[in-house]
Design goal:
Helix content of chain A: over 70%
Largest interface: A-B, 35 and 48 residues
Largest sheet of chain A: 2 strands, antiparallel
Shape of chain A: flat
Oligomer: heterodimer
Strand content of chain A: under 5%
Strand order of the largest sheet of chain B: 6-7-8-3-9-10
Number of strands of chain B: 14
Distance between the termini of chain A: 32 Å
Number of helices of chain B: 12
Structural class of chain A: mainly alpha
């Protein structure tokens, strides 16, 4: 057969990643995941527009006193604070599950459609097949995050019209924008890292269910340990009964090394509200203990280690096993 | 000049190497031995058939050749490269379809090929895609979703995908599985065409007739082991049988007469014929055996043994009952066993 160098295979990580992107563009589910936030935003805008037209909305600066807004410094007044509460926290916070579903679906479908063997007979380095999917998950995570950011901006600007506010940016708007961006970016970095371990589990068990179950269990355990660890770090263990103190000390010790603990450390601010188990309750400024004891560089290091370990797990699971079905 | 000579020598060595060589290839899944000590060679230009029933180990051998499955023992080389240690060198020269045709169901034919072309790093693949679609007769359906294709079309699109890289070796696992007769002919014609263009083809199948029509060399596998291999022509040389045709209402009786006469291991049914492996001059003996029981054959003729017959004789397959010609099976009649062919069961 006549051969043409133009058609000689030169598979690499880049070609595998481009392959994933091409499939992603053609797969409606991924477009659905990315375009739902702006679609929902437009729907909310439409409803509020009708209220504005037919209702009696006065001119005022909106206020927001939700705990989550306070926790991450998303602001207690201004349209960006209100938009954060509705979109970034309200919808964006739980929307991450769709990224996990998309990531596990991407792997599970290769087994369901039996295309995994075809890919494995075209890409000599199996790790490239896994890494390309991890990169695609990162791309999807970034796209969803961007989708939320754009929607958030549009909604916040609409709210200025809704509350008859001037369209310029106030000082608190600028602060809220900075903290809002930090919140949503790290929320989706968190989701991306969790997607990596979900991908590894899907390679191991070949079904989306396995990836999702592992994600839910891991996230629940990690999140619970972080909440308790953070609370004990903030309020100390002096008020606890003696029998609980050793456990509280363990939780306080491991908290900086948890995935959600590391993400929170980067997201949170020293001066904002944080949960506490102390008799004084939740108070402003109680994060100082964590800020002092958990340096930011440690949080970044832990994120890098989690990303590396979860990716390595996915590569190892796929590379070490026979592809038989 | 010396460098040129060395280059020619290296090229010549590559040319003379077998395309595939396996030695003591073994795969064990926990306690089950799927492939046991398999050794065979495929030469350049061969259309090589791995022949055996379902579960014989054909697909596992193919998976090991492609590096999908790690051998428990032994080695497999493709173009002289180890399939586990030098996968890149192997896969650059090989395209394969393992088991059922599989591409992305939600994408159309053209996009599926484009996805594959991107995956392997083919630059500007559009012309090549049009070319392979044309060769597979799929240009008219290129924009239809893969999920809407018939099985034959899916198989052809997968082969088109395999041809994108101009492979030197094409591996097809059960390529005619599930196809209608027209689809089988298409695939057969395609394989022959590829072989004429210099592509070496390895195919696995349990359809012996298909293999005989398209392969020049075969390896027969049973329970993970190769029990025979060689050129099809050489394997079948001198292998003959006798085919006997009787009246439909006497067919079953004839079957049991011949079985009772001691020919059971060589006897099988094929359509309206009773086939007995053996030299053509045995026809007279069979005729006598039937005639003494009151059955007169309307046709007795010699025939060359097919690969199927050869395979059945190798595996000592014995037909248990005439299954499909006689329309209504009756309870098995009791015919007295015959001590020797041609004997008179009535004692007259």
């Amino acid at each position: 057969m006549a051969t043409n160098s133009l058609y000689q295979p030169k598979p690499s990580l880049l070609t595998s990643y481009r392959h994933e992107l091409f499939k992603g563009v053609k797969h409606k589910f991924y477009a659905f995941v990315i375009f739902i936030p702006p679609a929902l935003t437009l729907l909310i805008i439409l409803l509020q527009f009708l209220i504005k037209i037919f209702g009696n909305v006065g001119s005022r600066v909106p206020t927001n006193s939700s705990i989550t807004n306070s926790l991450y410094g998303l602001g207690d007044k201004g349209t960006f604070a209100e938009a954060s509460s509705t979109l970034l926290v309200g919808i964006g916070g739980s929307y991450g599950i769709l990224l996990i579903i998309a990531a596990t679906l991407m792997v599970a479908n290769e087994y369901r459609w039996n295309t995994i063997k075809m890919l494995a007979t075209r890409q000599p380095v199996r790790a490239n097949l896994v890494l390309s999917k991890c990169l695609f998950a990162l791309t999807l995570s970034a796209a969803i995050c961007l989708s939320f950011i754009v929607s958030w901006f549009i909604y916040a600007l609409f709210l200025k019209y809704f509350y008859s506010q001037p369209f310029g940016f106030t000082d608190y708007d600028l602060s809220n924008i900075g903290n809002g961006l930090r919140y949503i970016i790290f929320a989706y970095l968190h989701n991306f890292i969790l997607a990596l371990i979900a991908i590894a589990m899907t390679y191991r068990f070949k079904t989306i269910v396995a990836g999702l179950i592992f994600y839910v269990i891991y996230n629940a355990i990690d999140g619970t340990l972080n909440v308790f660890g953070t609370a004990f770090a903030n309020s100390g263990t002096a008020e606890l009964p003696d029998w609980l103190k050793p456990l509280a000390e363990v939780l306080r010790f491991i908290q900086p090394y948890l995935l959600s603990g590391s993400i929170n450390r980067i997201q949170m601010q020293e001066t904002v509200l944080q949960f506490s188990f102390s008799s004084a309750g939740n108070q402003i400024g109680q994060n100082s203990q964590i800020v002092i004891s958990n340096p930011v560089w440690l949080a970044w290091l832990m994120l890098a280690i989690y990303t590396f370990l979860f990716t390595l797990a996915a590569v190892w699971v796929f590379s070490s096993r026979d592809i038989t079905d | 000049m010396q460098a040129t000579d060395e280059g020619l020598k290296a090229s010549s060595e590559t040319e003379s190497r077998p395309v595939i060589r396996t030695q003591s290839l073994t795969k064990r899944f926990r306690t089950q031995v799927a492939v046991n000590n398999v050794g065979f060679e495929v030469q350049r230009g061969d259309v090589f058939g791995l022949l055996g029933p379902n579960g014989a180990g054909k697909t596992t051998i193919i998976r090991m050749l492609l590096g999908l499955v790690k051998p428990t023992a032994g080695t497999a080389q493709v173009f002289g490269f180890d399939t586990m240690q030098q996968r890149g060198e192997v896969l650059a020269r090989v395209s394969a379809i393992v088991e059922a045709p599989a591409l992305y169901p939600g994408m159309n034919g053209y996009d599926n090929l484009k996805a594959m072309a991107i995956a392997v790093g083919i630059q500007n693949p559009d012309r090549k895609i049009d070319d392979v679609l044309g060769r597979m007769g799929l240009s008219g359906r290129a924009r239809d979703k893969f999920s809407t294709y018939s099985l034959g079309m899916k198989q052809r699109l997968c082969i088109a995908s395999a041809l994108l890289t101009d492979p030197q070796l094409l591996i097809l696992d059960e390529p005619t599985n599930g196809l209608d007769p027209a689809g089988m002919v298409e695939i057969r014609t395609l394989i022959r065409g590829l072989a004429e263009q210099g592509v070496t083809v390895l195919l696995s199948s349990h359809l012996l007739n298909e293999v005989q029509q398209v392969c020049n060399r075969v390896a027969i596998i049973q329970m993970g082991q190769i029990i025979q291999q060689g050129l099809v022509d050489e394997l079948l040389a001198g292998k003959t049988s006798v085919q006997i045709k009787v009246r439909p209402d006497e067919w079953e009786k004839a079957w049991y007469i011949l079985q009772g006469a001691g020919y059971a291991p060589r006897l099988r049914a094929e359509g309206e014929y009773l086939i007995i492996a053996g030299p053509s001059h045995d026809g007279a003996i069979f005729n006598q055996a039937l005639a003494t029981n009151g059955i007169f054959a309307s046709e007795i003729s010699p025939r060359s043994q097919s690969l199927e017959e050869y395979y059945l004789s190798l595996t000592n397959f014995q037909a248990e009952a005439p299954a499909y010609y006689y329309p209504q099976l009756q309870p098995q009649p009791q015919y007295p066993p015959m001590s020797q062919p041609g004997g008179n069961p009535n004692g007259n």
